[in-house]
Design goal:
Structural class: alpha/beta
Mean pLDDT: 93
Strand order of the largest sheet: 9-10-11-8-7-6-5-2-1-12-13-14
Low-confidence stretches: 1-16
Bound molecules: S-adenosylmethionine
Distance between the termini: 69 Å
Length: about 375
Amino acid sequence: MSSMPLISIEPPAALFPRAARVAPEGRLRDSHGRAITDLRISITDRCNYKCVYCRTGEEGVLFSELPMADYLRMIRAFVAVGIEKIRLTGGEPLLRKGLVEMVEELGAMRTTYLPGGERIADESAEALSRPLDIALTTNGHLLESMAQPLKDAGLTRVTVSMDAVDSETFTRITRVPRSFDRVLAGIRAAREAGLGPVKVNCVLLRGFNDEQIELFAEFSRREQVIVRFIEWMPLEEPSSAPDARNWKPETVVTMDEIVTRLNAWRPLVDLAPNAASETARRFTFDDGLGEIGIIAPVSRPFCGHCSRVRLTSDGKIRTCLFSQTDHDLYGVLRRGGSDADLETYIRKVVMKKEARHHIGEADFLKPSRNMVHIGG
Ligand code: SAM
């Protein structure tokens, strides 16, 4: 057999750059060793819905909102220490003027952290940098006309909150007439705009909207959206009104119950998690049509791999949904702090991130803010 000449093919330099020099301090971590990569930021405390399990309907705005430029400056500081996913929320984020322009600015930001958490500290940073994942959580009421502009501006994903798939129940929950058709149109517009796969989040309350479970399964299959059921957490505005929905453990519809109900409707098939920090357990059905996620912070807490930190509309960092305190990042900015000051403050605060929440335990204390004023 004649020997073939060996041909050495050099990979193009741009695809395989030489090893980059990395900075000594890596990505943001808390004192429990968790990498913090996700920032949820509320850009307004205002909301146009009064969902019964979230708001009393009597309280309005409690906290201020800041100029978009100030949010962007604080976000840049978070990105500089390793945040790579930004979720815009509220209140209701679509109420905020300048949202599309803000998304455009976010679209231009890059992370210079490698997937392993090291920060590139030499001239290869630009070539190796990656865009951020930019998501939005909305009630969808104003989404129909905004989906395409948001997509064009660089939004990656959208999650729409929707707690019923029939108009009458939906209005009973949101306390806004004719809201269902608008949200449905918003979901469809988001899908058409390519903001998919659109996620639809549903919070179930026993004896109130739990008859919707199977209807949501049908909805996922029909509308090609990912439906995610989220266990109700004790984060509502407390009320003494006769129709008030104050949190009780027995009102929570748990993951196990949802799985049992769906399985009886049509066999579920497990799907692998998308990432290690995935909060949802994922399923499809036996014919592969539809996708269901179940997020169970109450019955199956996932604090051990929490990767989140939150910034409220008034510029306070919250290290956990159930924190008793918040940390005034905006105060650092307002007092003339430099970018380095903001970054140092963020690193220091994140070290205080709580190990876990204590829902259902004797020592549980409701947090100092409710969900709508934190940013879900
Ligand atoms: N207005 C936007 C919306 O409706 O998606 C963003 C803010 S809203 C507070 C964010 C999400 O929090 C919604 O999906 C809502 O259903 C959820 N939420 C509100 N209160 C909750 C609670 N006590 N437990 C679990 N989820 C809750």
